[in-house]
Structures are given as C-alpha cells and as structure tokens.
Specification:
Elements: H1 2-27, E1 32-36, H2 38-44, H3 46-83, H4 89-142, E2 145-150, H5 166-179
Length: about 180
C-alpha cells in the first residue's frame, strides 16, 4: 500500500511539473541584462580624462597652499611653546587666540578646497550624465536589453563580461562629445 502511494505521488509530481514548467518558462522575460559602470565612463572617456587633469591641477595648487599653511601653523605652534614660560598670561592668551584663528582659517581653507573640487565634479556629472544615459537607453532599446544596471551604483557579484557595455558606451560618448 505504501509503495503504491509513493508511486502515485511520483506520477502526480511529474504531472504537476509538466503543467507548471511551460507556464514558468513563458513568464520569464525573453531578454538580456546589460551592465555599465558610469563612474568608469566619466573617468576614462576623453572628456573625463581632460576633467581629471584639470582636477589634478587644482588639487596640486590647493595641496601646495595647504602645505604652506601647515608649515606656518607648525612654526607658530613651536614659537608659542617656546615662549609659554616667558610670556605673561595675557600675552600668552593673545598668541594662543591668534594661533586658534589661523588654525580655523586653515580648516576653512581645506573645506573650501574640497567643496570646490566636489562642486566641479558634480558640474561634470550634471553636464554629461544625460548624454551617457541617452546612449545607454539607445543601446538598450536597439539591442533589446530588458535592463541595464550601473555597477557603480548597484554592487554586482557576477556579470557576464559579454554584456558589459561600458567600453562601447565610452566609444559612443567620445563620438557624441566630439560632435558638439
């Protein structure tokens, strides 16, 4: 009796699979998923390379100014420590306040430099991301992708390199920018 029940359950399971499998295969989308890395596109395209060179020049200029200010602060701090025992309390307080003001100016200088670079980078993104997205959309429609994922935004554990469109988008983007 038990064997007959197992045998009938097996036949029932096979029948169920025969009915469900075609429905599942029809429900799956018949397309492919592509992948891009927009950060890489912006960094390695011709426009991105030019912008990165500009960013490096600004960074180096800011770095030099910041290092000069650091040396000045280090020198002032050394003088303040040397004179701590011979200065009056009022004179020491004034020098310490002057040092603190210069230190805050130094911190503001660093913040302003970082804010400036971030603003320039954001301007670059705002200017070119729409063009990049148009290229990606056009590729997606023409090549019948059901989705194209930006790996810079969504971590992807694995993807088929054949469906990585980054290099092709860079080539198209370079052509588009040259036309303008």
């Amino acid at each position: 009796m038990k064997k007959r029940y197992e045998w009938m359950m097996g036949i029932g399971l096979i029948a169920l699979l025969m009915v469900v499998t075609p429905a599942l295969t029809q429900a799956q989308p018949s397309g492919k998923i592509g992948f891009v890395n927009v950060e890489e596109i912006l960094a390695t395209s011709e426009t991105g390379k030019v912008a990165n060179e500009e960013f490096k020049k600004i960074y180096e200029k800011n770095k030099t100014n910041i290092q000069n200010r650091e040396q000045e602060l280090h020198k002032l701090k050394g003088e303040l420590e040397k004179q701590r025992t011979v200065l009056t309390e009022q004179a020491l307080k004034e020098k310490d306040l002057a040092y603190q003001k210069k230190f805050r100016d130094y911190q503001d200088m660093i913040k302003d430099a970082n804010d400036d670079l971030n603003a320039r980078r954001q301007d670059l993104y705002n200017k070119y991301i729409p063009d990049i997205l148009k290229i990606i959309n056009r590729m997606g429609e023409n090549e019948q992708y059901i989705m194209i994922v930006d790996m810079a935004v969504v971590p992807v554990a694995y993807h088929n390199k054949q469906h990585n469109l980054t290099t092709r988008v860079i080539e198209e983007f370079n052509k588009t920018v040259k036309k303008k």
